[in-house]
Design goal:
Layout: H1 2-21, H2 26-35, H3 40-61, H4 63-66, H5 70-93, H6 96-130, H7 136-155, H8 160-170, H9 176-201, H10 206-226, H11 232-255
Length: 256
């Protein structure tokens, strides 16, 4: 029991540090939940619960930047809630064995986004600047894309922030503080509404989730004070190596 507690808290702590410095904390926390014996769907739901406090505190910290986009906040909120509900519902209706087989592919998708996310955002910003006057069809497609992003977040939380930033770049946002604030706001609403469904279905492991959440908050607090002393590229490289290794392990474990 003590060893599990230490593993979960340490995973949460390092996940919180990574989220504050470079992102990618779920590559640590989700496998840790699986490692201590929590079933995959429950581990995924628990990981969403654990990450939510960090999203909310981050969104609060960016509240002034978020309010710079007042005219879109209602739309973003509604789509986040609808997408989060749909994604969580899909997760709860997915057979355990199907989700287990999907885990390596979901991790691979999130890993690729983490590695190439900055380049993708850069290309999308160029595209958005060229097509500033989007047609009504383009606006509808952007709404559908945001809904898809939120459905993904409700189904599998890892990589949600990276995907949301990519959407915001395509939608024409350029202020990085506003983008980060909206990313955290969307992640908060997607996670909160998904958690409601997970609670009703009883799939959250509250003990493990609380330990990971406390570790995440401690790691985020630590990183807020000391992250400037850490070479961010070094941390990012660590996340890439760790995520590639974890993804490869899950492919081997499930398909070998």
């Amino acid at each position: 029991m003590l060893s599990e507690l230490l593993i979960l808290f340490a995973a949460g702590f390092f996940g919180g540090v990574l989220n504050s410095v470079a992102g990618g904390g779920s590559f640590i926390t989700f496998p840790a939940l699986l490692f201590v014996g929590i079933p995959p769907i429950s581990a995924n739901a628990t990981n969403t619960f654990s990450a939510c406090a960090g999203y909310m505190s981050g969104a609060y910290a960016f509240r002034k930047d978020i309010l710079q986009d007042r005219e879109n906040l209602l739309k973003l909120t509604l789509l986040s809630l609808i997408g989060g509900i749909c994604g969580a519902w899909l997760l709860l209706r997915t057979p355990e064995e199907v989700f287990v087989e999907a885990v390596p592919w979901l991790l691979l998708f999130a890993t690729i986004l983490f590695i190439f996310g900055a380049r993708l955002n850069s290309e999308l910003k160029k595209l958005a600047s060229v097509h500033k006057h989007a047609s009504s069809l383009g606006g509808l497609l952007l709404l559908l894309l945001l809904l898809g992003v939120c459905i993904y977040g409700g189904f599998f939380n890892a990589g949600l922030g990276i995907i949301t930033l990519s959407y915001l770049a395509l939608a024409g946002y350029s202020n990085i503080n506003t983008m980060n604030g909206i990313k955290l706001l969307v992640s908060s609403f997607v996670s909160l509404i998904a958690i409601v469904l997970f609670v009703v279905d009883g799939v959250i492991d509250w003990y493990a989730g609380t330990i990971v959440m406390l570790g995440t908050l401690a790691g985020g607090y630590f990183a807020a004070h000391y992250s400037r002393q850490l070479p961010q590229q070094l941390v990012r490289n660590f996340v890439i190596v760790a995520s590639c290794g974890i993804t490869a392990y899950f492919f081997y474990d499930i398909y070998a």
